[in-house]
């Protein structure tokens, strides 16, 4: 747990930190950027899932029977916030291939920085299903807070947010609006500029992922 934000875990594994530093560089081009988002997301998912509940299962090996474990409960759901969250899906699916996938369409109005909602389709919100909300950037927190509220309105009870880079106002906003949602990040940065970009950050995640600028 983070000393300033009880909802926050910074994943400081050396591989994650090494890859995040390359991701931040302005010299990192689209193809490499995509690969790194994929790899970091996979490593983050490995860390975030380390406390998933398991239950015993009987396995028959070629030699004899034994008791193994499998993960308990409903299939996990990944919910990327469009569009930049899409870049995090494939890496996590490599570890959790049977995860269900929902989509939340939100963009941040450039003037007001308020989120504008345009799409929502998520798997059934059975009680035991864990939802992983995915968005590389947690800046003011407006988008992630609105997305978590949409998931809750649909009945989701267990939500975690996975972001690559966060700014303190975004983490605080999540703590204020959704204290029950755990926030996992690769980096907690210094702050925001006047346009709501994270400093030092990595720029516009959607544009860098999709090559739109
Ligand atoms: C970016 C990012 C988050 C949001 C973060 O998306 O991917 O969704 O901004 O900012 P916030 O915490 O201040 O809400 P953007 O609105 O640029 O949309 P895009 O993914 O379609 O590029
Ligand atoms: N969205 C981004 O893509 N980057 C930021 O720094 C802030 C919001």
Strand proportion, as a percent range, falls in 25-35%
What letter string, H or E per element, gives the SSE order?
A: EHHEEEHEEEEEHEHEEEH
Outline the biggest β-sheet.
Answer: 9 strands, mixed
- If you compute it from the alpha carbons, what radius of gyration comes out, rounded to the nearest whole angstrom? 18 Å
Number of helices: 6
Distance between the termini: 37 Å
Based on secondary structure, the structural category is: alpha/beta
DSSP helix fraction: 25-40%
Looking at the structure, what is the overall shape?
A: globular
Provide the residue-averaged pLDDT. Answer: 96
Give the number of DSSP strands: 13
Bound molecules: 1-O-pyrophosphono-5-O-phosphono-alpha-D-ribofuranose, uracil
Indicate the low-confidence ranges by residue numbers.
none
Structure description:
The model has no long low-confidence stretch (mean pLDDT 96). The strands form three sheets. Strands 1, 4, 5, 6, 7, 8, 9, 10 and 11 form a nine-stranded mixed beta sheet that branches. A two-stranded antiparallel sheet has the order 2-3. It has a two-stranded antiparallel ribbon with strand order 12-13. The termini are far apart. The chain is globular and about 65 Å long. It has helices at 14-24, 30-48, 89-95, 142-153, 168-177, 205-210; strands spanning 8-10, 54-60, 65-71, 77-82, 100-101, 103-108, 115-121, 130-134, 137-138, 158-166, 182-188, 191-192, 198-199. It is α/β, with parallel strands linked by helices and 213 residues long. The chain contains six helices and 13 strands. Helix 1 runs antiparallel to helix 2 and helix 2 packs across helix 3 (89-95). Bound molecules: 1-O-pyrophosphono-5-O-phosphono-alpha-D-ribofuranose and uracil (URA). The site of 1-O-pyrophosphono-5-O-phosphono-alpha-D-ribofuranose has 21 residues, from strand 6, strand 9, helix 4 and helix 6.
């Amino acid at each position: 747990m983070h000393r300033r934000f009880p909802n926050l875990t910074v994943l400081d594994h050396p591989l994650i930190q090494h890859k995040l530093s390359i991701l931040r560089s302005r010299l990192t081009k689209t193809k490499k950027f995509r690969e790194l988002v994929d790899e970091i997301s996979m490593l983050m998912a490995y860390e975030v899932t380390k406390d998933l509940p398991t239950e015993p299962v009987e396995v028959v090996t070629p030699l004899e029977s034994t008791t193994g474990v499998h993960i308990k409960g409903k299939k996990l759901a990944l919910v990327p916030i469009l569009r930049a969250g899409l870049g995090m899906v494939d890496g996590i699916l490599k570890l959790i291939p049977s995860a269900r996938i929902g989509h939340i369409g939100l963009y941040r109005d450039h003037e007001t920085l308020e989120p504008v909602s345009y799409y929502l389709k998520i798997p059934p919100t059975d009680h035991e299903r864990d939802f992983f909300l995915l968005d590389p950037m947690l800046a003011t927190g407006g988008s992630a807070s609105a997305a978590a509220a949409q998931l809750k309105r649909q009945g989701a009870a267990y939500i975690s947010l996975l972001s690559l880079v966060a700014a303190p106002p975004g983490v605080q906003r999540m703590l204020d609006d959704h204290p029950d949602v755990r926030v996992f990040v690769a980096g907690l940065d210094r702050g925001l500029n006047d346009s709501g970009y994270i400093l030092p950050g990595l720029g516009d995640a959607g544009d860098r992922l999709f090559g739109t600028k």
